[in-house]
Specification:
Elements: E1 5-6, E2 17-22, E3 32-33, H1 39-45, H2 48-68, E4 75-80, H3 100-115, E5 125-131, E6 144-145, H4 149-165, E7 171-174, E8 178-179, E9 182-183, H5 189-192, E10 203-204, H6 210-215, H7 224-234, H8 247-258, H9 264-280, H10 302-314, E11 317-321, E12 350-353, E13 368-369, H11 375-383, E14 388-391, E15 395-401, E16 406-408, E17 441-443, E18 449-455, E19 458-462, E20 468-471, E21 477-481, E22 493-498, E23 501-506, E24 511-516, E25 519-522, E26 534-541, H12 543-552, E27 556-562, H13 582-594, E28 598-603, H14 611-616, E29 619-623, H15 630-638, H16 667-670, H17 673-676, E30 694-704, E31 707-716, E32 722-732, E33 743-752, E34 757-765, E35 771-773, E36 778-780, E37 784-793, E38 796-805, H18 815-818, E39 820-821, E40 827-829, E41 831-835, E42 842-846, E43 853-861, E44 869-875, E45 881-888, E46 893-900, E47 909-914, E48 922-930, E49 934-941
Parallel strand pairs: 2-4, 3-13, 4-5, 5-7, 6-8, 7-10, 12-14, 12-27, 27-28, 28-29
Antiparallel strand pairs: 1-2, 8-9, 11-29, 15-18, 15-26, 16-17, 18-19, 20-21, 22-23, 23-24, 23-26, 24-25, 30-31, 31-34, 32-33, 32-37, 35-36, 37-38, 39-49, 40-43, 41-42, 43-48, 44-47, 44-49, 45-46, 45-48
Length: 956
């Protein structure tokens, strides 16, 4: 019962059960289903009601598909609620927002839809991903996020807490990574935090293969039996490991039980939680299950198709518009723009250019598209095919073989194939490439290939019939794929310079390509560059030249740029830059030079840094990959059928220089996200333009006990009906500790007719103005002045109202009575949080042992009688010694202690330090760590125990 694939128990009439059905933006991996926009696109809608309705549709399709295929699971692994701290994260497409409050609001709505409205039975049982503080794919199973207490309680936990407290969540899935040196699958916060937020039984499902990582790649425990026991004790209930084979998991748990590492009660607890979830899904009361009648006819319904279109429309964000949009029915611009100057060529026609122009992309967590709408297709349907000029922006190339002849794609090599996953695989990673098509070979006449450069040297090659070159399971390269896809993408290549030519390297296998009498194939084991074919790349037409020609032939140009969700940024692969791929930069520049009436439509899973496009082009839009209705939705927005009202769910930076390190999770210290970023973003959090105009008026704030009520009016002063997203932020005016520039506390998206005035009322807990007080380990709202700010984005504040919070000032740290937990510092330099023990607690160590780490503790109350000793609880595994020094903030040294080797990172020793400088009263304290040492805590006291006893450091 503890494995993902739990077998049937016939004597108890319990059926087999599988935890885990991907349902991030539609039912994934189980064949045709309605595909909604990517999660980050749903985040751009800022619309909880929309998310709830999508959740209802997705869970209905889960039930309907299960009626046809029992392998479809009712325990759905969605949504992803990790705040989007870093836009380079490969899985940016899976989250909702960089803001925890917006993330929690949307996740709560989506899980409510997934759960269903019945008071007893759940339509599906959603599991939140990925617990906890997970925003990097690079080394994702071995890297540790150093998360200070304030970041933990103010940023990472709230995104999970909201939907859990709402009662719509069945459980969570831990992340592959570590937090403060401890694997997330052993997180003490599963019991200390998660399971204190609700009275429900919550299920913790491991991520795939993660249980094996604990004693494997992470080396955290010596044996898999110890690892399984530790996971069960920490609260993991279902082990997703070894695919459908439960035997290794069973053996490990039995071994742990026999060794006394766990008791039967640990197993009973996990099984009870799993069975409780299955009971809520109606499995044991099928005659009472209100959802039992849902069948295949509830998949791809007209209502779901309409909802997919509505969602794609709501996800479009208008970033810039100098009046070119909306386009007229004649293909021209807005009211004053006419239909396109004849000088630009082709008045009344639209050129659509770029790799996203005729694409409707799936991502790793998409279902199989039943319907597919592209921008080119939607424009042709609206205007007529004769008024749409198309250029995909790829280079046309021929590859000459050094061994003679040209690379040649046989006719018919790209015969139609089924989309990945359509055979009903539980995971498309288990499918292999096509081997029934003729391989690419060498011929006397060249085949002209379309080369698309996705940036970073990564490219795809398309045959004349549109199919991608792909390496199959037998190593041969064939033109067999409709698009890149799969867990290991087989359709991407790199051209490595080699002498006067290039070697063609297949990225999926990492191997070079060589020509054999049977065709082009990847090199074998042990074969080096000398075995590979050397190619000369002959460009017959550059993509930017075709773009310029198409742009000059049209009245208006739309450059559709962006990413393929399987390339250069996805699960397992972070981005290294925010820059648009250079080839796509050249496309919009060439189009702009040929026709100034050029719109840049970015279709992508993540933000780009495009400051020059913003400066030079009259209009810029962004949408995430919009699912099955992507092209129709974007076209309707371009032509003004729908006024855009999407808002950015994360900051768009002007360049890479504005970003902290990928692994720096301390958003306060790193000054990251809109909350703390001190620079000027390209487009701020919450930004998005409209085809209408809105005025804000009369913000008032009243208080009733612990609740604030903010009321304002918003008027649509434009001449068209449109949605407005009213955003309410809070700000501490003169905080004693670093606080956000402003922080979202409420929002509402609402349609207002032209000329209509709407009254918006928001209730905000006073506690939302507060922060985590590290000095006392609790949430607190300091007395002082605050502001509530209403506006159209985090940088477009229209109204401000003051709020005063009374009460006594915060007390200083009671260091004489309580000591200091090292991890509860106020500020630090070169410090990293590590695991104090393998089960719970944090310590601090230098991030770089070759440099000093410094920790600042503000407002430490040493009392009227100066302590003369400090007892440091420290550990050091390496031979030799390290030093820990104490000093007051004014520079007064208090002393330094030597920490010898303690024979292990968890073997803490109490080290006594005689203090100089006689600290009295309330002072700021600096602690300096030198060498590879871990500091857990320190206590202060007097040597004369009759005067004032010192707290025993070794007992903490």
């Amino acid at each position: 019962m503890l494995h993902q694939f739990a077998p049937a128990v016939e004597r108890l009439r319990i059926a087999a059960f599988r935890t885990g059905q991907e349902a991030l933006h539609g039912v994934a991996w189980m064949g045709p289903a309605t595909v909604f926009p990517q999660a980050v696109g749903l985040g751009a809608s800022w619309n909880p009601d929309l998310l709830r309705r999508i959740g209802e549709a997705v869970s209905t399709e889960v039930r309907g598909m299960r009626a046809r295929d029992p392998r479809v699971g009712l325990n759905v692994w969605a949504p992803v609620v990790n705040p989007l701290r870093d836009p380079r994260w490969g899985r940016n497409e899976e989250g909702y927002s960089e803001d925890p409050a917006l993330t929690a609001a949307l996740a709560t709505a989506y899980t409510r839809g997934l759960r269903g409205g019945h008071p007893r039975y759940w339509r599906t049982a959603p599991v939140l991903k990925h617990w906890l503080a997970h925003n990097n794919e690079t080394g994702r199973d071995t890297t540790s996020a150093s998360v200070p207490p304030r970041v933990l309680h103010e940023y990472d936990l709230p995104a999970f807490r909201g939907p859990v407290e709402a009662g719509a969540v069945a459980g969570v899935m831990p992340a592959y990574s570590l937090v403060n040196g401890r694997p997330n699958h052993l997180s003490p916060y599963l019991e200390q935090e998660l399971r204190t937020w609700t009275d429900r039984e919550l299920v913790v499902c491991s991520d795939a293969a993660a249980p094996s990582n604990i004693a494997g790649s992470q080396g955290y425990h010596a044996t898999h039996e110890e690892a399984a026991a530790a996971a069960l004790r920490a609260g993991v209930d279902s082990f997703t490991d070894h695919d459908q084979d439960p035997a290794p998991t069973i053996a490990r748990v039995r071994g742990a039980l026999e060794r006394g590492l766990i008791g039967e009660h640990h197993i009973d607890t996990a099984v009870r939680r799993l069975l409780a979830m299955r009971r809520e899904l109606g499995e044991f009361d099928p005659e009472d299950d209100p959802y039992a009648g849902l069948g295949p006819e509830h998949v791809d319904t007209p209502a779901h198709r309409e909802l997919a279109r509505e969602a794609a429309e709501q996800a479009v964000v208008l970033l810039k518009n100098d009046g070119l949009l909306p386009l007229s029915a004649h293909g021209g611009g807005g009211e004053d723009a006419g239909v396109g100057a004849d000088a630009a060529g082709g008045a009344g026609t639209v050129a659509v250019i770029g790799p996203m122009a005729d694409a409707c992309k799936r991502d790793w967590y998409s279902g199989d598209l039943i319907r597919r709408s592209t921008l080119r297709g939607a424009l042709a349907e609206r205007l007529g095919a004769g008024r749409v000029v198309h250029a995909d922006g790829s280079d046309r190339v021929r590859l000459r073989c050094a061994s003679g002849g040209w690379l040649y794609v046989p006719a018919g090599a790209g015969a139609p194939e089924a989309a990945p996953g359509s055979a009903g695989s539980l995971n498309p990673a288990h499918t292999e490439g096509r081997t029934d098509l003729p391989p690419v070979t060498r011929g006397e006449h060249p085949t002209e290939l379309a080369l698309t450069d996705w940036g970073g040297g990564v490219l795809t090659l398309h045959a004349p019939d549109g199919h991608c070159l792909s390496a199959a399971a037998d190593g041969f390269v064939r033109a067999s794929a409709e698009e890149p896809g799969g867990w290991v993408v087989q359709e991407t290549f790199v051209l490595d310079p080699h002498g006067d030519g290039h070697l063609l390297r297949h990225l999926g296998s990492g191997r070079l390509c060589r020509l054999t009498p049977d065709g082009l194939r990847t090199t074998g084991e042990g074969e080096g560059p000398e075995s590979a074919e050397v190619f000369t790349v002959e460009v017959t037409e550059r993509g930017e030249d075709a773009a310029a020609r198409a742009a000059a032939a049209a009245g208006t140009v739309i450059v559709a740029a962006g990413n393929d969700p399987h390339i250069n940024g996805r699960e397992t692969e972070d981005r290294t830059t925010l820059a648009l791929p250079p080839a796509q930069e050249r496309l919009w520049r060439a189009a702009r030079a040929a026709n100034p009436r050029t719109v840049l439509a970015l279709v992508s899973s993540y933000p780009y840094a495009v400051p020059e496009a913003d400066a030079e082009l009259p209009a810029v839009l962004w949408t995430a990959h919009g699912g099955q209705a992507a092209g129709t939705a974007l076209t309707r927005v371009l032509f003004g059928d729908v006024s855009p009202a999407g808002r950015l769910p994360q900051t768009w930076y002007a360049g890479d220089d504005g970003l902290p390190g990928l692994f720096d999770y301390d958003i306060i210290g790193a000054r990251a996200t809109y909350l703390y970023f001190d620079g000027t973003p390209l487009y701020p959090f919450g930004h998005g333009l409209s085809y209408s105009r809105f005025s804000y008026d009369g913000l008032t704030v009243t208080r009733d006990g612990d609740t604030l009520t903010a009321v304002l009016t918003v008027t649509n002063t434009g001449d068209r009906d449109a949605d407005e997203v009213v955003q309410l932020y809070a700000r501490a005016v003169a905080p004693r500790v670093p606080r956000p520039h402003r922080q979202l506390v409420a929002h509402e998206r609402r349609r207002l007719a032209a000329g209509e005035t709407g009254r918006f009322a928001f209730t905000v807990p006073v506690a939302a103005l507060g922060h985590w007080d590290v000095a006392h380990g609790r949430w607190t709202t300091d007395p002082g002045r605050y502001e509530l700010q209403a506006g159209a984005s985090s940088a477009d504040i229209r109204l401000t109202a003051p709020v005063a919070v009374g009460g006594p000032p915060p007390a200083p740290r009671p260091v004489r009575e309580s000591g200091l937990e090292a991890a509860h510092y106020d500020a630090s330099g070169n410090a990293v949080l590590v695991d104090r023990t393998k089960t719970r607690g944090d310590a601090v160590a230098p991030a770089d042992p070759g440099a000093a780490a410094r920790l600042l503790f503000r407002a430490c109350d040493f009392g009227p009688a100066a302590p003369d000793t400090a007892v440091l609880l420290a550990a050091r595994a390496e031979p030799g010694e390290a030093r820990i020094g104490l000093a007051l903030a004014d520079g007064t040294p208090l002393g330094e202690a030597v920490v010898p080797c303690t024979d292990g990172p968890y073997a803490y020793r109490a080290v006594e330090l005689t203090l100089g400088g006689a600290p009295r009263g309330v002072r700021d304290l600096w602690i300096t760590l030198r060498g590879a040492v871990r500091l857990a805590r320190l206590d202060f006291g007097l040597r004369d125990a009759s005067r004032e006893p010192s707290r025993a450091a070794g007992g903490h």
